[in-house]
Amino acid sequence: MNRRHYAISVHQASQESPTLAQLAALARESSERLRALEPLIPPLLRPALQAGPIEGDRWCLLVRNNAAAAKARQLLPAFEAHLRSKGWNVNSIRLKVHS
Predict the structure, then answer these.
(1) Of the four listed, 14, 66, 72, 89, which is most buried by Cβ atoms within 10 Å?
(2) Which residues make Cβ contacts (< 8 Å) with residue 29, sequence separation at least 6?
(3) Strand partners, 97
(4) Domain map (residue ranges) of the chain
(5) Is residue 1 packed enough to be buried (19+ CB in 10 Å), middle (13-18) or exposed (0-12)?
(6) Is the alpha carbon torsion for 7, 8, 13, 14 positive or negative?
(7) pTM, two decimal places
(8) Any idea which architecture 30-97 has in CATH?
């Protein structure tokens, strides 16, 4: 393991590490999925949703509170269909409430 005594950017670190590069790509894709859903998300619900991890054909949406999760749960079938129509392999979306 080479030790560096100088700072490098996250971008540079991800280019040098295949594992970190894969994580960065998954995070980028997760954010792109959430952006693709924006037209379907009611404006007042948008601030309560965050892109979460991608696990194979499952995607996780992080939700601020139970009320937002209840509303988002009603929209999940439309979210899944919309993402599939955009070419993403999404068989299910999981909601996780976080504070």
Answers:
(1) 72
(2) 54, 88
(3) 63
(4) 30-97
(5) exposed
(6) positive
(7) 0.81
(8) 2-Layer Sandwich (3.30)
Confidence bin at 71 (pLDDT 50/70/90): very high
Quick: pLDDT tens for 11-37.
777 677 888 888 888 899 999 999 999
3-state secondary structure the chain: CCCCCCCCCHHHHHHHCHHHHHHHHHHHHHHHHHHHHHHHCCCCCHHHEEEEEEECCEEEEEECCHHHHHHHHHHHHHHHHHHHHCCCCCCEEEEEECC
